[in-house]
Specification:
By secondary structure, the chain is an alpha+beta fold. The protein is built from four helices and eleven strands; from the N terminus they run αβββαββββββαββα. It is globular and about 60 Å long.
């Protein structure tokens, strides 16, 4: 089974409004699979200054290692159509960021420098394309910044050696984020 086909098989096992999930195996073997939500260029027409930014529908809430200590994860861009024949050959240098809108929500830092931007050559992406961030196995799930900025935990999918897809953790219901909060007594503020 081709990688785009497998990714789309995984996406189809989730409710339609869930765009990112973790494929969990063991250690470094998993991947974060997410959609490209936005693409912004800060380059001017008169110079090469600036960057092209790809914003994913996931980020430091799911894979903290790049933000924490500048870890480098391989990223592959696949067509949103799920068709192998739609994989283009054009490449562009981009900075990949997450959905938290934080300076630290950087998926392509310089190695060992979590706050330094580094462009990475990736296949040219369009909105709705799929980004697969490899090396995001069980350790990344355990390190996730649970409920940061009120983002629910991502669902997890297990893919067997036969290519069967199993949902092993549902996306957290947003109500669960707040269920342990208590009302503040009158007069405290």
């Amino acid at each position: 089974m081709s990688c785009p086909s497998l990714v789309h098989k995984c996406l189809h096992c989730l409710p339609s409004h869930h765009h990112s999930y973790l494929v969990i195996k063991v250690a470094n073997a998993g991947a974060l699979v997410t959609k490209i939500q936005d693409k912004v260029s800060t380059k001017s027409s008169s110079s090469d200054d600036g960057h092209i930014f790809l914003k994913m529908d996931a980020g430091m809430t799911d894979v903290l290692r790049p933000s924490l200590y500048g870890a480098i994860h391989p990223i592959t861009i696949l067509p949103g159509s799920g068709k192998s024949e739609d994989i283009g050959t054009d490449v562009e240098s981009v900075v990949v960021v997450g959905h938290c809108c934080e300076s630290g929500d950087l998926m392509t830092p310089k190695p060992g420098e979590p706050e330094a931007l580094e462009e990475r050559p990736l296949r040219t992406a369009e909105l709705g394309d799929i980004a697969v961030m490899d090396g995001s196995g069980a350790y990344c799930a355990g390190m996730s910044t649970k409920n940061y900025n009120s983002f629910p935990e991502s669902p997890e999918v297990l893919v067997t050696a036969d290519g069967e897809v199993h949902l092993i953790r549902k996306r957290q219901d947003p109500k669960q984020i707040y269920e342990n909060e208590c009302d503040v007594p009158d007069g405290v503020f």
